[in-house]
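no rush on this but wanted to send it before i forget. theres a chain ive been looking at and ive put its sequence and its fold in C-alpha cell form underneath. please have a look and point out which stretches look like helix strand or loop to you. thanks a lot i owe you, the record is right below:
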Amino acid sequence: MTVREVTPAIDPNTLLPGAQFADAFRIEIGDRALNARQAAERMMARQPRWAEALLTLRNILVAPFGLKTSGASSKPREMVGIFPIVSEQPERLVAGFNDKHLDFRIVVDVATSGAAREVTATTLVLTHNWLGRTYLAVIMPFHRLIVRSLLRQVAA
C-alpha cells in the first residue's frame, strides 16, 4: 500500500488555534469497517525499532529542558499509544498534548472512497518559542518517515 502526502483537509483553527504547521498523509486500505480509533490503535500499537531508538534519544536530549516525554499525566486520561485522546468520533480521533515549547495534535480521519477506506493522519503544531521552532525543524525529516511508517501499519 502506498502512503501519499496530501493537502491537509481540516481547519487547523478548530483543532489547534494558531497552528503554524500542518501536514497530512493518506493510505487506502480494503477494510471498509475500520473506524478512526481502530486506525489510530493500529498506527500506535508499535513503532519501528529505528523510530523507538530516535524517541529514546529525543527523550534523553529534551529532559534537561523539562519537556514532556509522553502525554501521560497524573490525571488518568484515555490514551492511544503515548498520546492522550483529545476527542473522538467514529470518523475522527484527535490526540496530542500541550507542552512548554509547542502544542501538537495528531488527527486520524477515516472515510470511504469507492471500494476502499482512506485513512489520513494529519499533524498540527503550534510553537511557543525558539525551542519549539528549533525542535520542529530538527524532527521534521524524521516525522515524515515515522508517519508514513505508522500509516503502513494500518494496512498490515
The chain is about 35% helix and 35% strand. The mean pLDDT is 86. Strands lie at 4-6, 21-29, 79-80, 83-89, 92-98, 102-113, 116-127. The two ends are 9 Å apart (CA to CA).
